[in-house]
Amino acid sequence: MGDRVGRDETESAARAVDGSTDRAEDGSTDRAEVEPADPFEVWTVATFDLAAFSLVVLLAGHLSGALAGALTGLGTVPGLAAFGYLWALVIVAVRWVLSGGGIADGDRSIGSLLIRGTIGGAGVGVGLVGGGVLVGSAVAVVRAPELLTTVAFVAVIGSVIGAVVGAVAGVASAVCSVAVARASERIVPETGPDYSSSSSS
Amino acid sequence: MAGALHLLVRLAHVLGMAVLLGGAVAAWQALRIGNRDPRPVLRRYEWLFWGALGVSIATGVGNLGTLGPPGPTTRWGSILTFKLLVVAGVVVLSAVRSLAVGRLGDSGAVRSIARGRLRVLYAATGWALGAIVALAEVLAHG
């Protein structure tokens, strides 16, 4: 018994030192079987989703006449920081959505992409609200501690709204991403042995 | 301080557009040269493209906040609407183009039909970006 415990501890330590090798040899853990997403695809799809979402919001705000008021209240530095934070969140979410298979036809079912896109979008919405709440909490602690209760209330309500809006944006982004991926497959149908280096001018 | 920050934001916006437009022309040219593998140039541009596009959108919104855009029914507002629609078109076109470049793979050369289609896409990107620059100039200087 004591020997066994000692051997288990040694094996655990070895796993901690070289976890990847162990997982690859073991093959029994789910994490080892999930294929990581292609970074190029993640970068393209994530920034496409973010740009499309931003443009839809900008156009809607501009056409409704609400854009000027909304932008005036938001300073340049906080605005850029919020955009950068949202960009990072979308990259993390798309990386998760595209893990275990890319966006190309045949890599996985569209239903799986839409479900993951919905969950990923909801995560981005909650993450965005959570970031805002963290900043708001820090400001409240320093300047007005009595506002912490209000910040907590806003966090709960904002997270629910953020999750719903994010889920809708996520599934819409997934649909658009699949559409542009199918269009790209028509541009470059397949890579195969019949490719030649010949060109046209 | 606010003036220097706004200048910095405008500089980033202009530099971002220079990367987008200049890279599109360079990629189109790389596809015209027949005896060279264009994939490294194309992939590098696509990486840069989305980074520069994100920066351009963020700084573009910053510019709008500083200028305080008038309503959509004014002449300035109508041009802004048109510019945003052209930018949206470039974004969709570029997503198709980037994912197509990503499909080229690591082995084998680029088939002539794919090369021709990509060249058209890069040319369209370049012309559309040129139109955006022209619209931006009208917005900035009337």
TrEMBL record, chain A:
Residues 1-12, 20-34 have a biased composition (Basic and acidic residues). Residues 1-34 are annotated as: Disordered. Keywords: Membrane, Transmembrane, Transmembrane helix. The keyword Ligase does not apply. The keyword Cytoplasm does not apply. Residues 39-195 form the DUF7965 domain. InterPro entries: DUF7965. Signal peptide: none annotated. The chain crosses the membrane at residues 50-71, 77-98, 119-141, 147-180. It holds the Pfam family DUF7965. This is DUF7965 domain-containing protein.
Automatic annotation (TrEMBL), chain B:
The chain crosses the membrane at residues 12-31, 47-67, 79-100, 120-140. The keyword Transferase does not apply. Residues 41-139 form the Copper resistance protein D domain. It comes from the Archaea. Coiled coil: none annotated. InterPro entries: Cu-R_CopD_dom. Keywords: Membrane, Transmembrane, Transmembrane helix. This is CopD family protein.
